[in-house]
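In this section we walk through a basic example: taking a raw amino acid sequence and producing a predicted 3D structure, encoded as discrete structure tokens. The instruction is simple. Fold the sequence below.
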Amino acid sequence: MKLKIDNESLFEEFFEHTQLIGIIAPIKSYQFIWNINELLGYQFKINHDLEIGSIRKKRNYYFSVYEFRSIGSVVTHYLYQNQYDGEYLLPEFKHLDYLWLIKGDEFGADEIAALQQSLKMLPMVQLVTQMVTEKIKNKDALVF
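The resulting token sequence is shown next.
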């Protein structure tokens, strides 16, 4: 008897109560995170346990994930680095430098709009766009 993982259920559960924002900001991740923390008041920290490894073209690639948990809330923010040494975490979105995933049903449309506006005010940010998870082909790359 073979057991098979139901990826669709896994994806559905992971992306339940999430919001996803794509960001173009062509600067190093440590600079981007520093600016978000300093100018927007977040406290993102790299989470090495969530780092996403991938083997492509016989090489290892590592995509950093930064994490911030809102105090007094169940909302958690994750910032994924979409590029590493010429490879992409989500190849279908090569133009995006970062992906901001927000998990928690307490983060509504007003908060998303305010966050997008705040991000657009940062001088290094060129584009901020809300994304629909159903349109992501490689959802498994974001699941940890």
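Looking at the output, two observations stand out. The CA atoms of residues 67 and 78 lie 5 Å apart. The chain has a mean pLDDT of 86. In the next section we compare this with other chains.
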